[in-house]
Design brief:
homodimer, 411 residues, alpha/beta, Molybdopterin biosynthesis moeA protein, domain 3, 4 domains, six-stranded mixed β-sheet, 7 helices
Chain lengths: 411, 411
């Protein structure tokens, strides 16, 4: 019962993921757009601010009235108005006049600068002395200075952060057009697999994969759809798989660490009408027997059954793929932060496989990191929990030496 | 109308945030625990795996029966069983016997090693030749090898990732005890402020702050509670503020860029019964007139009214504070990834203030980053959207020179 995998590189695998089209866009309420990717340029429909505002507490003036003012020779101005917040002044400031104005207050007609309150003295009931000159525009935020009507406020492809929400809110956008979230069918297979709620009988194991994959899907901003566990039965698997493809954009199968169940998975996937097998076998460790297929626009990703392999493959391919479907760029994962660290011990890898080695990061008092490989057999889930990230050893390297500075990707 | 701020350092402000107690814990379903912080050590209640399993496809054997086996002198073993997935074998493997076993299959009694199928040949109906010797434990994952019953699986204080969910699922945990999410009342104040849905009349502005703060609160894993906009009226503000304190763990006020409204905020906060003012004024730019108070266990954070200042202060203090309340460590934010970058131009800062300069990061072809300060007046929200992060210039520095390598914090 030998196994025939046509092993491709991780780059080739990513290229095949890129053959799928991005998802269509949808309008969502502004507050729901956090971390979503904007699907079209958002153009301002008005100036921000809509008219000139004061940047300080002080007096709105005609700048020329203050030219030459100093402590010894202050300019004397008549205070003709007190501008409240939220009230656009209707009267104008004429020559020799000033209007008291708070920070954020809208400038009255006639005024073109603001003198800070610190540089004024009260002079009687309705006059002030100005002790510093201002030029036109000083302490004023001009209309359209922040954003001009018609300008691109948030470009297509930008992931929405708090500040994008703030700027869109300030401009009156209550909705924003973003890429739709992928729906992901999560299907575990195997006669021995039982739901985590149940007490496994002798020989059974709990379905960890459904939960790790669903968590990763959720973390990627996508929506997992839980399916019941499927036994190792071609007919039943075929039926559930087709349901997954109909309901979801991406169907993730896991199960099949033995050759027999892996064969069942690939045979069942390829037996579906219109399915094209894009990849079966990728040159990574762990995770070699990974499968990618399509039925029209719908993707099917077959993960190895081992929970560790399944999780690594999901981080390396599924996470960036879900980001890509939502408008992000596509590259090999994990998608976490890269940290430079010094290897505490040499690591060995097989030529021809890109190997992902679990790493614990220890931060030194000088802010540098030491990368400590996490020992233990590759199938142990506890090694994933002990690790802070992974080190990817490229296909063409036999490993790294103790003391090498390497890139660790946090996960 | 001068303003009296007793300005403290960011470190002192963080120390005052640390005077609040962390929130109590709660049990949540396992799948809802993603990114939450575990509130107590989780101990395994059983071994993982619960009994020895095969790590390969092959034959379960008594290792001593294979000693000395080779291609020229294979060991001949009788195949007495075929172990299925999910079926714990009841028969035992005796001397001279073997049982066919798939990857993940549970070892039958008597067997202590597995020979890979590649190192066997079929010899008649019910026998195999073994061509490589194995020692005890080879290709076997022993009971408890991944996790031993009683061991700490996930330590207190750990933020839950996909892999923690996987390991907890494998061990049968359907719930996990995590710190409760903070509830955050988000209150905007100001006569001129109107909801983003409405068309501002002349002199009015839209309430950007409520949306930026709520987005940041959500991103920090906390729950924003939206309050209606409060006019600049002491009685009304007092009433809403007290509602916020009752309903939420943290009440965030924003508004008051003018001295008058800022005075109103601090007077109203301190007029509430049992309120202790912990800070009013912090040595940062932007964001100096920030306010922190407590009423019992409840925190009140007063943000500046300028949307940019409000957002920076929220990133510097509110984000880490919300993480701390949920079990995280407490330090000055922003909490994003730190990137080393070369400054494209020198930046100037005021001695005595920790200044946060908005930075655009450009990645060079060699993977290094160039840090380009984003120009424009500090009050412009668009500068936050153009920026990838901030550079914090410490209080005691006048700035950095062009070409300096600096730490940029992504936001």
């Amino acid at each position: 019962m030998p196994e025939f995998l046509k092993v491709i590189t991780t780059d080739e695998f990513v290229e095949r993921l890129g053959r799928f089209a991005r998802l269509p866009s949808e309008c969502v309420p502004l507050d729901a757009a956090l971390y979503r990717t904007v699907a079209e340029d958002v153009l301002a429909l008005e100036d921000l601010p809509v008219s000139a505002r004061s940047a300080v507490d002080g007096y709105a003036v005609r700048a020329e009235d203050t030219f030459g003012a100093s402590d010894s020779f202050p300019a004397l101005l008549e205070v003709v108005a007190e501008i409240g917040m939220g009230i656009l002044p209707d009267g104008a400031v004429g020559p020799g006049q000033a209007a008291q104005i708070p920070t954020g207050g809208f400038l009255p007609l006639g005024a073109d600068a603001v003198v800070m309150v610190e540089y004024t003295n009260r002079a009687g009931e309705s006059s002030i002395e100005v002790t510093r000159p201002v030029t036109s525009g000083v302490n004023v935020q001009e209309a359209g200075e922040d954003v001009k009507s018609g300008a691109i406020v948030v470009p297509r492809g930008r992931q929405v952060r708090s500040q994008e929400i703030g700027l869109l809110a300030a401009l009156g956008f209550t909705e924003v057009r973003v890429y739709r979230r992928p729906r992901v069918a999560v299907i575990s297979t195997g006669d021995e697999v039982v739901p985590i709620e149940s007490t496994p009988k002798p020989g059974q194991i709990r379905d960890a994969n459904a939960h790790t994959v669903s968590a990763l899907v959720r973390a990627a901003g996508a929506e997992p759809i839980a399916f019941p566990i499927v036994p190792d039965d071609a007919g039943r698997l075929r039926e559930v798989l087709q349901h997954g493809i109909v309901q979801a954009d991406v169907t993730v199968l896991s199960g099949g660490s033995s050759v027999g169940t892996r064969d069942l998975m690939v045979e069942t996937v390829t037996s579906l009408r219109g399915v094209e097998l894009l990849a079966h076998g990728v040159a990574i460790r762990p995770g070699k027997p990974t499968l990618l297929a399509r039925q029209g626009d719908k993707a099917v990703l077959g993960l190895p059954g081992h929970p560790v392999s399944a999780l690594i493959v999901a981080q390396v391919f599924l996470d960036p793929f879900l980001g890509y479907l939502q408008g992000g760029s596509l590259r090999r994962g994990p998608m976490g932060q890269r940290v430079k660290a010094r290897l505490s011990t040499s690591v060995h890898s097989t030529i021809g496989l890109e190997e992902f080695i679990r790493i614990r990061l220890d931060e030194g008092s000088d802010g540098t990191y030491c990368a400590q490989p996490v020992f233990g057999k590759s199938g142990m889930l506890s090694t994933m929990v002990k690790a802070d990230g992974v080190l990817a050893v490229p296909m063409n390297l036999e490993g790294f030496a103790r003391g090498d500075i390497v890139d660790v990707i946090r996960f």
